[in-house]
Amino acid sequence: MLDELAPVLTDGKGKDLLRRLNSKKDVDQALPAEMELALLWGIGSLGEMEIEPEWWGDSKRPDAITDFLVPRITAAIEIAATNDNSLSGEAEMDAIALQIGAAANRATG
Questions:
Q1: What is the pTM of this model?
Q2: Which of 7, 9, 82, 100 can pair with 14 through a Cys bridge, CB separation 3.0 to 4.6 Å?
Q3: Does residue 33 contact residue 20 with C-beta atoms inside 8 Å?
Q4: Euclidean distance between CA atoms 77 and 61, whole angstroms
């Protein structure tokens, strides 16, 4: 997955993911890094995306931007802890999760 994403990863993002995946000191970062990598790879398989776009305008850039996740909408994607139910907007996130599943099903076939 990392090799397939390499063309769209910034040098810093690629190194960060690889460091978190391989860290022996900070092993609690491996699973979140795997999830982030898998989600970015899955979204990227739908079509073009830009990871951490520098043009965003501030330091709180989204993890990715794509026009292929939700039909006719440009989506700014922020990947947070995938098992954190304390995040606000749970109903909206559930709806987006269903859309991600539907998009993945379309992509696979």
A1: 0.71
A2: 9
A3: yes
A4: 9
